[in-house]
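Postdoc handover notes: sequence design on the structure in folder B. Input tokens:
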């Protein structure tokens, strides 16, 4: 119990520090820093790309359309937000400002590198058994640099910050697919979440065995 509070308190402290971060230019266009949230001792940590419009306005990760799809796919595996910790590779919305309007864009490698210390601290505190990377920027940062989503999603990789990491299609990408392609892509996300959930169970079972 004390450990749970410790982890929550540590995350809260770091989140408070992140609110004033100016390590990259995204600090100039953000409304809010979207630090991340969830179970501070989650065995499964989900890492997306970065906040979109709704996340930037609310300060919470995955609360827009992509988040609704993610919640649906988690629920099909019996997982709720209380079970997981959710963060992003960048904590501030990457956008292009045109005629006073903001349009999402992918974060640059420099922005991802500038934000990485926050993510590394989150990983070190939560100490997840399995990390689920959503989308290529997350997989390239946390699994390997030349990650190929089409060939390598759904596979487990041994990583230093958890026992395993696995990557899945990003829900925003899935939403951009139409008809049958949408259904097929959505199915892969449900399957990859299931694989991550089963891996957590397997790792826990192995850890118990080594005690005796
Ligand atoms: N997409 C992401 O990658 N992260 C969010 O928090 C929302 C949308």
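Designed sequence:
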């Amino acid at each position: 119990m004390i450990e749970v509070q410790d982890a929550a308190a540590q995350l809260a402290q770091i989140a408070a520090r992140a609110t004033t971060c100016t390590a990259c230019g995204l600090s100039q266009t953000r409304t809010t820093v979207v630090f991340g949230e969830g179970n501070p001792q989650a065995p499964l940590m989900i890492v997306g790309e970065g906040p979109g419009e709704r996340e930037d306005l609310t300060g919470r990760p995955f609360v827009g359309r992509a988040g609704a799809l993610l919640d649906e796919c988690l629920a099909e595996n019996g997982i709720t937000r209380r079970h997981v910790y959710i963060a992003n590779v960048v904590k501030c919305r990457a956008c292009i400002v045109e005629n006073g309007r903001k349009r999402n864009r992918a974060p640059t490698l420099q922005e991802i590198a500038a934000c990485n210390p926050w993510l590394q601290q989150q990983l070190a505190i939560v100490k997840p058994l399995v990390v689920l990377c959503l989308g290529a920027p997350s997989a390239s940062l946390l699994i390997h640099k030349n990650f190929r989503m089409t060939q390598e999603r759904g596979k487990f990789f041994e990583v230093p910050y958890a026992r395993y990491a696995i990557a899945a299609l990003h829900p925003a990408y899935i939403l951009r697919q139409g008809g049958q392609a949408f259904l097929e892509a959505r199915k892969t996300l449900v399957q990859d979440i299931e694989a991550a959930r089963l891996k957590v169970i397997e790792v826990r079972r192995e850890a118990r065995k080594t005690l005796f």
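Context for whoever picks this up: Residues 15-206 form a domain with the Uracil-DNA Glycosylase, subunit E fold (CATH 3.40.470.10). Don't rerun without checking with the PI first.
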